Amino acid sequence: MSENAQHHSGVEGVGRWLPTTIDTSVAHIARVYDFFLGGKDNFPADREAAARILKGNPGMRDTCREQREYLRRAVRFLAGAGIRQFIDIGTGLPTQENTHEVAQKIAPDARIAYIDNDPIVLAHARVLMADQDHGRTVFIHADARDPGKLLADPELTDVIDFTQPVAVLMIGILHFLPDNENPGELISTLMDAVPPGSYLAISHGTPDFAPAIGDAVQAAYQASSMPCRVRTSAEVMALLKDVELVDPGLVLLAEWRPDGPVPDNRQRITYAAVGRKVP
Asked: How far, in Å, CA of 113 to CA of 5, rounded?
């Protein structure tokens, strides 16, 4: 948590801290992602980073679009499977059909906790939750790399009942956790905290189908001071050891329970998977 913060109270879930300064001179993953999705909440450093990434993968905008579509399908599946609690880690800047909107359309009583560490995301969350009229949605300004602290956060425990099944969403975040940050231990800590019947949904960049693009994207993120580690299918599966994958298993984004025919020009640099914690 930045020292440049002030205490805040008001709209439920906005968080106890409202940062007063934002460092726009350094690219941030959430804002770069916003640029790829056509948003306007980004700055020159973010756009410069995006330009480097697009040189490595000219199809990155399509990848981000497919990832959002996968998120929505996964949330619909999870809500349809009876899940009423969602922890969305690394949520990013809001677009249309966010996790709470998709889940609460199916189950109005669904409860959602968004987790992110970008102050601009926090500011948008105030507006997002001001329109809340059913269910419960909170936003917690926190760093998921400290899962113990996150799981003990009173805002989280006020909304999420850890005696009941929870869906943990880690969409587009794991490839920003290098090996020395132990993403496998992070997942294990989170999944140890939830009961059997809970789910984990992930997406993860991979070099398996286009090694040159995977390496170029990884290098472009790193050149913009954003750690990145694309992983092979075996490495991603190792991160999913705490869950049993539901059909169709570990597949490309567009191949995970598509709403229609999978296009031949689908992006081939990101995996998707949803797994269930079993007794």
From this structure: 21
Give 177-205 pLDDT, tens digit per residue.
999 999 999 999 999 999 999 999 999 99
b/e code 15-51 from CB counts within 10 Å (16+ = b) = bebbbeebeeeebbbbbbbbbbbeeebbbebbeebbe
What's the pTM value of the predicted model, to 2 decimals? Answer: 0.87
Query: DSSP string of 164-226?
Result: S--EEEETT-GGGS-GGG-HHHHHHHHHHTS-TT-EEEEEEE-SSS-HHHHHHHHHHHHHTT-
Q: Which of 89-98, 167-176, 211-220, 266-275 has the lowest mean pLDDT?
A: 89-98
Instruction: Give 224-271 as a DSSP string.
Output: TT-------HHHHHHHTTTSEEPTT-SEEGGGSS-SSPPPTT---SEE
